Amino acid sequence: MARPVTPSFRERVYALVRSIPEGRVMGYGHVAAALGNPGAARQVGYGMAALPPETDVPWHRVIHSDGSLATKGDPVRLVVQRGLLMREGLQFRRDRLDMAAVGWVPATG
What we know:
39% of the residues lie in helices and 4% in strands. The chain is mostly helical. It has one domain: Winged helix-like DNA-binding domain superfamily/Winged helix DNA-binding domain (Arc Repressor Mutant, subunit A). The protein has a two-stranded parallel ribbon. It is globular and about 40 Å long. The N and C termini lie far apart (28 Å).
């Protein structure tokens, strides 16, 4: 009997990120924890950075858990990410989002 094919961690990350509603965000560590891998925040970040420009994955909705944007020194990506989030109605205060107000937790069950 063949073993069922399971999606890779990165594919699971992309599926979860696609489910983040417009106007909401998740932290890298929150994504990893929601997928049962709480120590894999960096792997989530690597997955977001590996996405091509034409992706349907809303990478801009994944940020640092303190509400700051995470673009590793890429000023263009920083401007794009901030613009996309603002277009969704999110407001920054001192270059951070209020995670208590706009953070999203997927339903479990």
